[in-house]
Structures are given as structure tokens and as C-alpha cells.
Amino acid sequence: MALTFQRAPAAIAAAVAGLIALPYTGVADFYLSYLYVVFFWIALATSWGILSGYSGYWSFGHAAFFGAGVYTAATLAGKWGLPFLLTVPAAAAIAAALALGIGLVVFRIKSLRAEFFALLTLSVTYVLAAVVSNTPLDGGGGVYLSNVSIPQFGTTVPGAIYLLGLALALAALAVSRRILRSRVGAGLLALHDDEDVAEVKGVPTLHYKLAAFAVSSAIAGAAGAIQAGYLGYVTVGETFSITVPLYVVLMSILGGARHWSGPAIGATLITVALSLFVGGGHAELGRAGVALALVVVILVLPQGIAPSLLARWGRRKSAAPAAVQEPPKVVVMKPPAVHGATGQPLLVCRGVAKSFGGIRALQGVHLQVEEGEILALVGPNGSGKSTLINMISGHFPLSAGAIELAGARVDGLAPHEIARRGIARTYQIPRLFDHLTVLENVRLCAFFGGARETSGEGDAEALARRWLAFTGLEAKADSMPPALNLHERKFVEFARALAARPRLLLLDEVLCGLTPTEVDQAIAMIRKIRAGGTTIVFVEHLMRAVVALADRIAVLDQGALLALGPPRETMQDPRVVGAYLGTAHAA
Amino acid sequence: MSLTLLAQSAIGGVLLGGIYGLLALGLSLSWGLLRLVNLSHFALAFLGAYLTYQLGTQFGIAPWFSALVVVPAFFVAGLALHALFVRFEVDEFASMLVTFGITILIESMIQWFWSADYRKFESGYAQESLRIGPLFVPVLELAAFACAAFLAIAVWAGLNRTLLGKALRAAAHDGPIAAAFGIDATRLSYLLAGMCAALAGVAGVFIALTSTLAPSQIEAWIGVVFAVVIIGGLARPLGALAAGVLIGVSESITMAAVNPAWAPLVAFSILIVLLLWKPKWL
Amino acid sequence: MLLEVRKLHVSYGDAPALWDATLDVAAGQVVAVVGPNGAGKSTLINAIAGLLRARKGEIRVDGKDIAKIPGHRVCEHGIAIVPEGRRLFTHMSVIENLELGSYRSGARESGEGSLERVFSLFPVLKERRHQIAGSMSGGQQQMVAIGRALMARPRLLLMDEPSLGLSPAVVDDMFRIIRTINERGVAVLLVEQNIHKALEMAHHAYVIEQGRIVSSGKPDALLRNPRIREAYLGV
User: Fold this and answer.
1) CA–CA distance from A549 to each of A373, A544, B208 (Å)?
2) CATH number of the CATH domain containing B24
């Protein structure tokens, strides 16, 4: 969500300048160290949020990357005498490499459950601790950095550490904010809500997860290096303890993990609260308190603090005079960039078959869809219609046969690749990204869709708005999907599918659950879409609508294509009547 | 390395695997049948161990009698925790976070009462071993293994041979249809939750008898037992035992052959190999 | 009247699936509910079986309203379901599935007798009673599903699209068996896409379209009604 502060940038700049100047004002080292701890946790929590908050892959292993950074600095500076400042980027690089290694193994696992990822990353921490403890990296006795000279930037050592911590915290916040506002952030938030749908809409989920993991770990590694300098003496037990993962998880949940500022808010609150309530010698009491807070927050306030704060800011924004409502104008969209001569088959299915275990869902279907036509896919329950749609869009691999789009094979491609080639689909029960606004839902598909004419973010937003206008939803642009009714959600699905500028649009039982008036509106919309040049294949049960809308009807029965032709003719074919009503009626 | 050393390590590993399997049992059942990832299982087990230690050291109560107190008390604690999950409609992932917090809470509580010092429960049997040829089989560890095997088999029988167990499995597979045939999934889930907590108590008694106790140990076991649960298969009691033994033996042999300190790596490596080779395991 | 459904409203989230449904099933009757796909037939059956909660309306069995009782208490009123797609406990054997069918306390005592009756109806299940349910063919699985429901000693059997995914020969056998079951005194509420088969054996039938019951009457009368044809075929 974009927070636009009107007068805030100036205030923020002033605050930052003040913070940078602080060590030079003669403030006591104690306060500088105190603030450093706050910055430290801000950096760690914010970095955690970049992967886990945005994508929903909650890592319990943040300590592993932090620890990797600590020991990089300890080894390079403490043992080998390299300049301290160099160890910080080195630590970041090593932590990032570790994350990439783990991610390449783990993120490839299909349908990786969130709990599993969490526990796996926790295990990595213990393993790393064992490795560090048993090799010359630490060897069991800890590593001293007391001989390491830390550049002082004209102030005391604590002041220098303070400045490094400040720099890292600011960097973490800036990076997190930048990611959130970019298409990577949109992709991560989308895959958080529904990874399958995000993939189908064109988000390269694996790459984004790896990138977020690497960036998150790099910052944690850098924090580790700076912390090593601060402490002067590091041990395996302290570094790889449960403290880091526990605290960052709680801080992010408390503050709100989906926003770039949430973890920082939580970090500040918790660090200050801990220092107020807990004296020096009661570390375990502090941990117990944090743990208790975690339990309470998960049960009672699962979304965190930031969302409610944002809601209040948002309300202040809308108190400003509403923009003048333009009368809804007829929006005519340019047809997709490439369309061949009419009469050319756009989609060809050759002998497409699919078996699930022993069940033959589809048997050798041959089908050609002409460019610019509306083809209806009908048939009794269990006939294989949805399976065929799912295979064209890439949800399931084929058991046999081939599917070609404009002459090129698309079966076997990853779903996001298929989306790029120009195939879009809607779902029978709308699967919107519930934590993104309607506009963001559509904008995401504009970012990642096929035949892209736009590349910048600004363009995607404008495109999204135009498609919302096309579907009559411009007034709902800033609403969240759960607030819309079914009809509106289905139209958002339309807008999303169209924003990807598809050559072929697959509609899966889009009329299901609509009132007769809404059905009429949907039919009009489908006609409008085809007028724009998109080819449409739709699965539908409402036969009256099918007959009215379709150029041709394909009837499937028991996994095989039974009949194909113009509506009336096909539905009166004796074989079709027999399949639906039973053979006694065929006459 | 001599054959005797190898065999001795293997025996040690098998017996250790029994404890792993025992700890994994409750977690595996809970995760597989209730869809709740109960990390506090570990902390609960250690709490049971400390209580056994305390009752034994301070009041001279034999561990077998302590068990009679601890296990039923834990059953009730399991019911209480489950009530919390039901009341707040906690899903699978949230259950992990909540129990993560509870684990730390229990750990802190343990540290508060018993300090971070290492504690060893002197039960008097610690030095006794059976001799089989040149090999020693420590009596306490053997008892732990026997108990683990007995419980694994008993749970397996319960799940597969009794109507109640089958009803539980049916409810986990398809709750609404099971309900349509009269199976009250909620009541059964309470029963199972209590039983899992009771199993933690049993594990705790044996941990007190066979290991040195320290609050930091709790975390050390999480990684290994998690691997055992995954490798053994969710809700598979015999699998948990077998996986425990596999990892126990691998660790022991690694410790004897290479270096004791590398043991934590073993479980994790086996898990990674399995994940790469057969990702469908999940 | 064994079953009385009055003005039932059911929604999936905010998507309404069934409006104002009203129907009756007398003891010992076969009642068919037909209609095109997506019309709401399964929703109706699932609501009666307690798998779905109705937003409004009543479901009375022998006069007692069961619409609001917890899901696991529904079978105590003599209702058993053969769900769409069978929904067997696929990891368990045939006999275990059957045993679970009689889980409810009212049915367990007569468990032995019920089992014999099911085996006499489906001899192939007796042969394969230790086979894992998930490894059986579609037709055999359907037998297990029907057997499981019969084990609950129901007075009313709810059947949701029993012919789904079955070859025509198997479908014939199955409807013969349904007739036998009905002759033993069990009322059947049958939801089917295969109009011909369903109306052939029903005493009474209802037609559902787009979430509403639009016609009701004797099967012959409905068969001659052109509206049904239009609802299914659009022409």
C-alpha cells in the first residue's frame, strides 16, 4: 500500500539528519549504544519481513544468516586482520549465498507447506551452529574481536557503531520500501495470498522468492558483522540462540508483516519495552515476556498494529475532497497487438489426454479454436471440461497429446510462461488476492501479462484503471476483495484476465451463482471483450446463455469430444441429447 | 575402527533412537491427525523430565511413581492447550507460532526454577548394564527403548485395530463425511491432544533417567526430532520409531567414526537427501 | 411425512446456491431431484445431510427440525448419505469403511447383521473386503459407498449423483440395486443428472434450475414437459 506523506518527507529528512549528527553532539556513549540496539533490531526485523512478511514463507532461521555474518566478520577481522568495514559487505555476500543455496533446494519443492519451511530453516540454524562450533571458525571457545580497530568517523567507538547501525537500519527500510512498491513486491504479496494463481497470472514465483530470501539474508548478515564489532567477543551459543528468530517474528507480527514499516514499529516498541521492564540480569524474563506476547498477539491480533494505523491514515486521506466523478465513458480498448487473419486456428489441441491415477479424465481430445470466436465447452458432470481448461492454462501436465497456441507448443510450460504467451483465465470461484486492493489485483496482472505494451509501473497503473473502467468497477478500485459481492468479484476476475492482454481468454463457469440480471450484464461484458479481439473459450452450464453467446459449441462426454458445431444444431444432435437426458429421449 | 566399537555405537544409536521415536510420536500424531504443529511437545517433555528429577531428588520418589503423577497431569494440560486452539480457531501455521511461544515460556520457567546449570538425576540404575558378549547394553536406555517400542506398537494398534482409532483417522481424512456417519471429530481431537501430551510426559521421565538436563537442551532436540517426524511420516507411529532408530544409529556411528561434534548434522543431511530424492514425501 | 424441507436457503460464503427450497419425502418413497449442472442439487442434499449449514429454513425429520443440530448428530435421525464422488476413506479397507458406516451407537449393535445384508447385496465386496478402498474401480467404490450408508441403518438414503463416472452397464446394475433397497423399506432421495434413469424409478420428482425448485410432480408428467429439455439443452 502506498503511503504518501504530504509534509512528511521534510520531517523525515530532518529527523535523519538529527540522528546522524547525534554522536557529534557529545551525547553519552550509553545512549548511543541504546539507540544502536534499536537500530540493530529494526534492521533485523525489517530484513526478515522482506521475505517472510511479504511472501508468507515465515523463516525461523534468521539467526543462521545473522550468525553467518557474525562469524564472517569474526574470522575476517578478528582472525585474519582484514579492515572491519570490508567485513560488512563480505558478510552480506556470504549470507546471501547461503540463502540462495538453501532456497534453490527448498523452494523447488512443490506445494511446500509454510510450517515445513519454518522448521526447516530452524534446523539450518542448528546445523550451522554445529558446523561453526566444530571447525576452526569458532572451535568452541568463541572469537575475540577486541583487537579489531573500528573506524571512528571522528567520534567514539560506540558512536561509530551507532552510525553503522543507523546506516544499516536506514538501508533496510529503504530497500524494503523499494521492493514493496516494485513489481517484485506486488508479486510477493500476491503469492502470499495464492501462489498458484500468482504463478498463473505470470509472476515468476521461484525467482522472486529467491531474490527476497537473498536480500533479506544479506541485510541480516551485515547486521551480524556490525554486531560482532559491537560485542567484541562472539560465541556460538549467543549467536545462534533462539533469541533472534523469536524476536524478529514477534516484532514483525506486532508491527504488521505486510508493510515495510511494520517490523520497524514492532522492533522499536519491543526493544523499548524490554529495556524499561527488564533489568540487566534477567534475560530469561525478557524472553519469557516476548514469548508470552507472541502467544497473545497471534491469538488476538493476527494482523499486527500497522494495518490499523494505516487505516486511520487512509481515512485522513479520503477526507480530502473527492475527485470529480467523470461520467462513465465508453472505453474502447485496442485489440491485442498481434492477430492473424480470421479463420486461422489460434489454439490447437491434438489428442489431449489426462489420467489421474487410474481415472481417465480426458481421452484423446482434438479441438481447434479459431481466432476471434467464442467457443463454449459443455457437457455433463465429469465430462472433463474443467480438466481441459486446467491443462490449457498450465495447472496440470498432459498425460498425452499436445496443445499449441498460434503454432507454438505450450503444454509443459510453467504456468507463468503460458500467461506470458497470452493465455489468461478466470476461476469459477473467484480467487482474488484478498490482501491487495482491487486496483492492485488488476495492476499485478498488467505487470506480468502477455504481449506487454507497457513496461513501467506508472503505465501498468493507468492500464489497470482503464480495465476497471471497462468492467464498470472504477469506483471500487481501492476496495479490498472481501468487501465486494460475488458479481463484483467476478468482474474483477474479468479485469485481471484482460489486463494481461491475452490472445485467448478461458472462462470457467463465470455465470455460476449470478442473478438473472447479473447474468445479462456478464453476457454483455463477454460480447464486449470479444469485440475487442480476444478469443474466448468458456465452460458453462447455463445452456440458454451458452446458446445465445457461442459461435460454436464443443460437447464433451466422459472425457471425449462428442460433438462440435453451431449451437442449435449441436444441442439437437441425437447423441448430445442422449448424453444429457438418457437415450430414451434421443428421438 | 573395530567391529566391537561399531556394534557398541550401533546399540547406543538404536537405544537413543528409541527416545527420538518417543518424542516424535506425539508430535507426529498431532501434526498428522489434528493438523496442529505442537512445538511445545519438546518443552513439555523436558518439563516432565525436570519434574521427575525434582520429585526424585527432593522427595526421593521413584521415577515410576513420578510417572503416575506426571503423565495424567500432562494429559490434562494437553486438553487445556487444545481448548485454547479450538476457542481461537487456530490453524496449522498459527498453531506452530503459538506453541513456539509456549515452548520459550516453558523453557524460561524451567530456567527460573532450576537455573541453567546442568542437572543429572541419580536414579541408581545409571551404572547398570547388561552384557552381551563384549557389548554393554545400559539398562535405563534399554528400558526407554522398550517403552518407546511398546508405545509405538500400542498406538499403531489403537489407530489401526480399534474402531475409535479408525474413526480418528477417518475424521482426519474427511471430517464432514465422518461427521455424517456420527463421528464427533472435536471430542476425538481432545482425546488425541491429551494423549499426545501424556506421551510427552512419558518421554520426559525417560529423558530424566538417561540424559543430563539443561534448559538449552530443549532447542537441541527440536531439529533432530523434526527430522524424525518428517522422515517417519506424519501420523505413522512405527515410522517414527524406525526413523528415530535410523537417525540414532547414523548419529552414533558418525560420533564414533568421525567426530562427536558432527552428530547434529546427520539428521539434517538425511532429511535433505530424502527431500531431493523423493520430494513427494511431504 | 418422513422428510419435510421448507424454504431452505443455502449459500457458499456470499454466493447463494439454493433459494426457498421446499420438498417432501414420504416413508418408503423414491424421490428424484433433477436439473442441469450447477443448479443446486448437490447443495440441497449436502444441506439435508448436515454437510452444509442452511442460512434459513427448516429440515424436519418426523416433524423434528434438524437444520441447526451439529453435523455428527444428523445420522441419529435415520439419514445416511452416499456423497457425490463417493468420498470413501480411501486409505482404509472395504470392511473398515463399512464398519465406520455403522459408527453411530444406534447402528453398532446390529453391526453383524447389517454387514451380512450389505454383502448379500454386493457379493463382490465380500470377496474383496480387505482390499484398500482407493484401489478399487469406480463401480466397486460406488458399491462401498452405498454399503457404508446402508450400515447406518437409515430410513432415508440420500444419493448424490450415483451414476457419475460410471459406465452405462454398471449404472443399470446400480439402479437395480437402488430399487431393491427401496423395496426393503428405505426411502431414497436421489439427485441425478441422468434424467431418464432417475425418473424411471421415482415415485415423485422435483426439477431444480438455478437454485430454485421450479417444477414438481409425477415423473411421466415431467418427462413430457418441454421445459426440462430446454433447461438441459438450451433449445
Assistant:
1) 10, 9, 75
2) 1.10.3470
Measured between beta carbons, the chain C residues lying within 8 angstroms of A513 are: 12, 15-17
**Which subunits have 3 or more CB–CB pairs within 8 Å of chain C?**
A, B
Residue B51 near residue B66, CB atoms below 8 Å: yes
- Neighbouring C-beta atoms of residue A232, cutoff 10 Å: 15
Sign of CA dihedral C11, C14, C16, C22: positive
- At A1 the pLDDT is 42
Q: How confident is the model at residue A327 (pLDDT cuts 50, 70, 90)?
A: very low
B226–A contact, CB cutoff 8 A: yes
Q: Which long-range contacts (CB under 8 A, 24 or more apart) does C116-125 make?
A: C117/C150, C118/C147, C118/C150, C118/C151, C121/C147, C121/C150, C121/C177, C121/C180, C121/C181, C122/C146, C122/C147, C122/C177, C125/C94, C125/C98
Q: What is the pLDDT of residue A288?
A: 83
CB pair distance less than 8 Å for A127 and B264: yes
| Cell numbers at C87, concatenated | 468420498
Residue B134 in any domain: the answer is yes
Q: What is the mean pLDDT of chain C?
A: 87
Boundaries of domain holding B58: 3-277
Cell for A185? Answer: 513486491
Under 8 Å between Cβ of A88 and A82: no
Interchain CB contact of B59 with A (< 8 Å): no
Going by the DSSP 8-state scheme, the letter that residue A550 receives in this structure is -
Instruction: Out of B166, B180, B185, name the one closest to residue C74 (CB).
Output: B180
Please compute, for residue B6, the number of CA atoms within 13 A of its CA located in the half-sphere on the CB side. 3
With contact defined as beta carbons under 8 Å apart, do C158 and C118 qualify?
no
Whether residue B229 lies inside any domain: the answer is yes
Q: How far is C33 from chain B (nearest CA, A)?
A: 21
Contacts of B165 in chain C (CB under 8 A): none
Dump the DSSP string for A492-524. HHHHHHHHT--SEEEEESTTTT--HHHHHHHHH
In a domain, B282, yes or no: no
Is B262 a domain residue?
yes
Residues A80, A280 contacting (CB under 8 angstroms) = no
Let me know: does A195 contact A31? Beta carbons within 8 Å.
no
Instruction: Return the pLDDT at A311.
Output: 67
If one counts the domains in chain B, the total is 1
Count Cα atoms within 13 angstroms, Cβ side, for A161: 25
What cell was used for A117?
A: 519451511
- Report H helices in chain B: 3-34, 40-59, 63-87, 92-114, 139-161, 163-173, 175-180, 185-210, 217-232, 237-257, 263-277
Q: What is the DSSP-derived secondary structure letter of residue A25?
A: G
Count Cβ neighbours within 10 Å for each residue of B180-196 and write b for 16 or more, e otherwise.
Answer: bbbbbbeebbbbbbbbb
Q: What is the pLDDT of residues B250-279, one digit of tens each?
A: 888 888 887 777 777 788 788 777 776 766
Contacts of A114 in chain B (CB under 8 A): 93
CB contact at 8 A, A503 and A407: no
Contact A125, A245 (CB under 8 A): yes
Amino acid sitting at position A87: T
Burial letters A500-534, b for 16+ CB under 10 A, else e: bbbbbbbbbbbbbbbeeebbebbbebbebbbeebb
For chain A, domains (ranges, CATH) are: 51-276 (no CATH), 346-586 (3.40.50.300)
Query: pLDDT, tens digit, for every residue of A210-235?
Result: 999 999 999 999 999 999 999 988 99
The strand pair at C64-65 and C56-61 is best described as antiparallel
Residue C17 in grid coordinates:
446456491
**Residue C83: which of B169, B177, B182 has the nearest Cβ?**
B177
Rounded to an integer, the average pLDDT of A312-338 is: 45
